[in-house]
From TrEMBL:
Protein name: NADH dehydrogenase
Family the entry assigns: Belongs to the class-III pyridine nucleotide-disulfide oxidoreductase family.
Cofactor(s) listed in the protein's UniProt record: FAD
Alphabetical UniProt keywords: FAD, Flavoprotein, Oxidoreductase, Redox-active center
SUPFAM superfamilies xrefs: FAD/NAD(P)-binding domain, FAD/NAD-linked reductases, dimerisation (C-terminal) domain
The organism of origin for this protein: Acidiplasma aeolicum
Source taxonomy: Archaea, Methanobacteriati, Thermoplasmatota, Thermoplasmata, Thermoplasmatales
Pfam family for this entry, one: Pyr_redox_dim
Domain FAD/NAD(P)-binding span(s) in chain numbering: 2-293
């Protein structure tokens, strides 16, 4: 069996490794257009902020782990230009490679508005290395975009540089609902007030390796401008091969087959079912890509494992606070006409006598089913486990009553006996009982 994987990121290398592990006699070949495979994109902001200086620490494995130990053929700096699905071939230039099964894991590319075309974008290892070199001789840094990447960069780079953030939204991390979003906004402004809200660049010019950024609020200079204005799934190969797409993503079934049964897709280029809404949408997250790759590896010659979908659980470091969300927010609930109830709790992270820090937890409940369908959190102390607890609860489809009665472990140093999760669940039950 000849298996070709296009893309050496999380989904591609996870798929290739699982296929080879389950079927040692299969010939598995990976084509990666850059000179790196299997690296940690989520670690790049820490690399840029100087937490470590050796970029190779971002590599999950050296390439020899795949080529020598796992017996996977890996071609780096090799771009696949065309897929001939009828004759089961892929082309790099004029060179053709035949396959029995194909995996498309081409990822996504930065969304680059014309006004920002001369700025830096952080999406690949090479881009991270280039930005790191530029930062070595920089003092003033301007960031465009206050989404997940822009917000975390603003937090981490503020430790070493004079950083300005330009956000087109009213607050930071726009997926958050307004109430908890405003809490985060106050926290961020307490650490760095150099933010323009409701603002976009109207002109960015570069002269002698310096940048001038003009917005409707004024003009300022910067040594480097890093843009985090979204990404675009790389679906052109799939579209040109005649594969179906949905919402700008490669359409897949529950087993991650595309519209061509012998071609699979995973990672940032593939549509993923939202567990709450059922919509096929974009979840560009490493843990989801890895699990999709693993699922493809199982299903490459037998459909035995369904990919259930995702919640888009996200957590980042914002000035020492663990900030994140899972499931849907209020706006999404309204969009799908879900009869939703919200609960926002301000509690403490530990028992009172151990001087815990503030915790803000918001849960969203479907009034009709009484299930928790979304959660958002700002927590300086154990926020990640609280968010992941709620993500597991939402995935399992448990009710807010089940969450209240869940037998969570209690230890004063890790949470009060009435943990904010339990308080939020209790208040949710009260609201449902009062309806």
């Amino acid at each position: 069996m000849e298996v070709i994987v296009i893309g050496g990121g999380a989904a591609g290398m996870s798929a290739a490794s699982k296929i080879k592990r389950e079927n040692p006699d299969y010939n598995v070949t990976v084509f990666e257009k850059s000179n790196f495979v299997s690296y940690a994109e989520c670690g790049m902001p820490y690399y840029l902020a100087g937490y470590f200086d050796d970029f190779t620490r971002l590599l999950h494995y050296p390439i020899t782990e795949f080529t020598d130990k796992r017996k996977i053929r890996v071609f780096i700096n090799t771009k696949i230009d065309r897929i001939d699905a009828v004759n089961k071939r892929v082309f790099s230039g004029t060179v053709a490679y035949s396959y029995d099964k194909l995996v498309i894991a081409t990822g996504a590319s930065p969304k680059i508005p014309d006004v920002l075309k001369d700025t830096y974008f952080l999406r690949s290892m090479n881009e991270a290395i280039n930005i790191k070199k530029k930062l070595e001789n920089s003092h003033d840094v301007t960031l465009i975009g206050a989404g997940v990447l822009g917000t975390e960069l603003f937090s981490l780079l503020s430790e070493r540089y004079n950083v300005r953030l330009i956000s087109k939204h009213e607050f930071i991390l726009p997926y958050l609902d307004e109430d908890i979003g405003n809490v985060l906004k106050e926290i961020v402004l307490a650490n760095n007030k150099n933010i323009e809200f409701n603002s976009v660049p109207v002109e960015v010019t570069k002269n002698n390796n310096k940048f001038t950024v003009k917005t409707e609020y004024g003009t300022h200079d910067a040594d480097i401008v890093i843009s985090s204005t979204g990404i675009i799934p790389d679906v052109s190969l799939a579209e040109e091969a005649g594969l179906k797409t949905v919402n700008g993503l490669i359409s897949t079934d529950d087993y991650l087959h595309t519209s061509d049964y012998d071609i699979f897709a995973g990672g940032d280029t593939a549509a993923v079912k939202n567990i709450i809404t059922g919509e096929r949408q974009h979840f560009p997250l490493a843990q989801i890509a890895n699990k999709m790759g693993r699922t493809i590896g199982v299903n490459i010659n037998r459909d035995t494992r369904k990919f259930p979908g995702a919640l888009g659980t996200t957590i980042i470091n914002v000035f020492g606070w663990q900030v994140g969300y899972t499931g849907i927010n209020e706006r999404t609930a309204a969009k799908y006409n879900i009869n939703a109830e919200k609960i926002l709790v301000h509690g403490k992270s530990r028992s009172a006598y151990l001087n815990g820090s503030d915790v803000y937890i918001k849960i969203i409940i479907n009034k009709n089913t009484e299930k928790i369908i979304g959660a958002q959190i700002i927590d300086k102390d154990n926020g990640a486990w609280r968010l992941n607890t709620l993500a597991a609860a939402i995935t399992s489809g448990i009710s807010v009553s089940d969450m209240f009665y869940a037998d969570l472990g209690y230890e004063p140093e890790y949470g009060p006996v009435w943990d904010p999760i339990i308080i939020a669940s209790s208040l949710g039950i009260d609201k449902l009982d009062a309806k």
